[in-house]
Amino acid sequence: MKMLDLLKYTVLVISLFLSYQAVEAHDKNFQVDGTYISAKRDVTGDQKIDIIQVQGLPYEKGSKFLKKIELSVDSNRSTISVPLEAGYNPDLKVTDLNDDGIQDVLVTVLMEGGERLITSYAYTFKDGKAKELEIPPPVPVMAQFLDGYKAEIIIEGQKPVVIDVSSRKQAYDEMGIYLNGKLNEPTELLVDPYSSLDLKTVLGKGKGLIGIQHVKGSDERDPILEIKSVWKYNNGWQLVKAQVKPVKGSNK
């Protein structure tokens, strides 16, 4: 083989290898330094594979906080971009959320602060245009302290759940919530937004979403209950079921 032909062959092999590596990386939804996630799906409905990416710009070198986050779709030699709010650890999921037969994009971003709450975004890119979709609302609940060092949570349409919080008696007495086991005044519990929102297969109903919310007592450092909810889209998000579970340290 002549030297020129050998050189051309070597360049071709290297090019093919790099192309394969790039495609394989996309297929694995790889992540680099917490600032880049990618997936390959058809999200525009044109029967061609698109590249979906979430990219973030760190606040400073080595920082996990991303001051700028962007969701983009490379489709048919054009790029559709959507800016997202700043935060940590973006997560990317691709599935058909609204049952229109076309894959949609779900991104969750961890918010700043110690509560580990998330901001969630759902988009359809049907026909090459970005349109924001609804996210399931928080579960409709009423939550309050009761006399006798108890807490009650009521989910709409379900029986009330009452738990014993006497393990926190000393702290609640010192804070003035209780006096001799009686409430000083009606006091509601703190119901957080979602700390997790992920895909779930709903038996007999296809894909849905599962969310986690926490119910807290005196402040953000006082978790009492966890609400796990399952949602399915049917001309809007419908609550399939919701379960309440005491967190460690609470006695039902």
UniProtKB/TrEMBL annotation:
Top-level taxon: Bacteria
Leader sequence residues: 1-25
Keyword Signal found: yes
Keywords annotated in UniProt: Signal
Identification of the protein by name: VCBS repeat-containing protein
Organism (species): Peribacillus simplex
Taxonomic classification: Bacteria, Bacillati, Bacillota, Bacilli, Bacillales
